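Appendix C reproduces, verbatim, an entry submitted by the partner laboratory led by Prof. M.T., so that reviewers can inspect both the input and the predicted structure.
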Amino acid sequence: HVIINDMAQVDAIGDFFFSASALSAASVDLSRRGISQLPLDFPGYEKLECLYLEGNQLTSLPDNLFLQCPNLRWLDLRNNNLQSIPPNIDKLRSLVAGH
């Protein structure tokens, strides 16, 4: 089980999202990867509809996550240590959140 919490690994997650976006992938599954942090400057990903982050060690989400993923419909955040959710989550009218 790999813990992703140093800056090189966080940058790799950003690169992963950039590549997935370039491939027009509608779904990204990063469940149970030991991720403790997502890139603060989350890359734009307009085609992303499903984001699975279940079973990680996240304590926060980037403030711009929901602005950068305007078509997000499914967000699975179960089994993390989140202290809060960015307030702009209300911009996602079609979102169904896992809990």
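Residues 7-22 form the longest helix (16 residues). Additional entries are available on request from the coordinating office.
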